[in-house]
């Protein structure tokens, strides 16, 4: 039954993309470059960390960047500026958890059901040089200059199947609409050469990311990972792929030397408004995406900390982005082009 439903879902996904790609439904185009970062599957593949990394690197190079997002499960409506160039203007409930996390990294963010409207608002209020469209691979309504497709090497899209029998939002062959492929978590698989060989056959430009855990935070202070040494630790998260986070903590426990005594798994985008945890562990460990939604009194009561997670790529990735769109799109604008 699930396979039949997946075939129906796949047919609808093909029709939807076809209508936009063939111009049967018009795409809206913003007057400045748009970089889309997205994936083919539901759940965590590392889109948000890649968005944060890309935005920060472009900002380091002198560009003004604004992220456009839907703001999934936010409690506000319409177009909302989450952060301008100077400060955060709303709470996480009005922004959505992922846009708020991006904003916490000093990156301007605008959320809206209509990303074109969000872009126009950002141009009026923030005046960016570049947009990054977060989770944009299936947002066909907005023209993008570069399509970046992220995937998890531990479950590559060519081995997955369509919803509801699998995790794919679109057929795996739709990778062809991407300009760049980003391979996340390659270091976690044994068949690295096989995956690289497969990607090379797809004839797409690709880059390999590296994950790094930089320490801990309780949102007030930062701590070294060694703070966990010798302690009994509880672990919880509300992600698209909770087992993946639990596996990361298990590997860290062997490296640092702590014991995981409890695990709590919550749905993706869980709001933690009524958080109840055991007081048995010395500390509770979660993600930055989760801890930003937890009330300060709960963080103190249960001694909650988050892993400070970053994703990095070689400078060649940003160089390629500049060569791909900025030379043609920006050299004749108000920005002065820099050689890359």
TrEMBL record:
PANTHER family tied to this protein: TETRAACYLDISACCHARIDE 4'-KINASE, TETRAACYLDISACCHARIDE 4'-KINASE, MITOCHONDRIAL-RELATED
Family recorded in the similarity comment: Belongs to the LpxK family.
Protein name as annotated: Tetraacyldisaccharide 4'-kinase
Catalytic activity: a lipid A disaccharide + ATP = a lipid IVA + ADP + H(+)
One GO cellular component term noted in the UniProt record for this chain: plasma membrane
Gene Ontology MF terms: ATP binding; lipid-A 4'-kinase activity
Annotated function: Transfers the gamma-phosphate of ATP to the 4'-position of a tetraacyldisaccharide 1-phosphate intermediate (termed DS-1-P) to form tetraacyldisaccharide 1,4'-bis-phosphate (lipid IVA).
HAMAP family: LpxK (MF_00409)
UniProt keyword terms in alphabetical order: ATP-binding, Kinase, Lipid A biosynthesis, Lipid biosynthesis, Lipid metabolism, Nucleotide-binding, Transferase
Binding site for ATP: 41-48
EC numbers for this chain: 2.7.1.130
Transmembrane intervals: none
GO biological process: lipid A biosynthetic process; lipopolysaccharide core region biosynthetic process
Pfam families linked: LpxK
Enzyme class at the top of the EC tree: transferase
Associated pathway: Glycolipid biosynthesis; lipid IV(A) biosynthesis; lipid IV(A) from (3R)-3-hydroxytetradecanoyl-[acyl-carrier-protein] and UDP-N-acetyl-alpha-D-glucosamine: step 6/6
